[in-house]
Design a protein that fits this description.
Structural class: mainly alpha
Helix content: 55-70%
Mean pLDDT: 74
Number of helices: 4
Distance between the termini: 57 Å
Largest sheet: none
Radius of gyration: 20 Å
Shape: elongated
Amino acid sequence: MNIYGPQSKAKISAGSDKAIEGISERVQALEKHVHLKSDERKDIFQRIKDLEDRVLYLESLSPEYLNILRNPVQQGAASSRGEELSKAAILKKIEERMQYLEEKMK
C-alpha cells in the first residue's frame, strides 16, 4: 500500500521518508486535536482532506467564534497596537454573544 499518496512513492528519495513521517505525525496530532479518528491506512492526502472537512464542520457549528478569531480588529477587541486577542477576550466575546442570544430567546 502507498501511504504517501498517488504517484508519489517512486519520486521519494530515502532522505525524504523522514519528512513524510514528520508530516504524518503532524496530521495525526491535528486529527487528535479535532477528535477525528486517525486512519493511517489512508494516504496522507485523504487524511488532510478529512481534516479540512472536520474543520469546516466545526466552523459551521460556531461561525461566531470563527469570526471573532478571523477579524479581531473589526470586533473591537484588539488593542490599539494591533495585538491578537487574548483567550480571556475571546471568552468574553463568546459569553456576550451567548447572553445576547439567551435574551433574544426570552
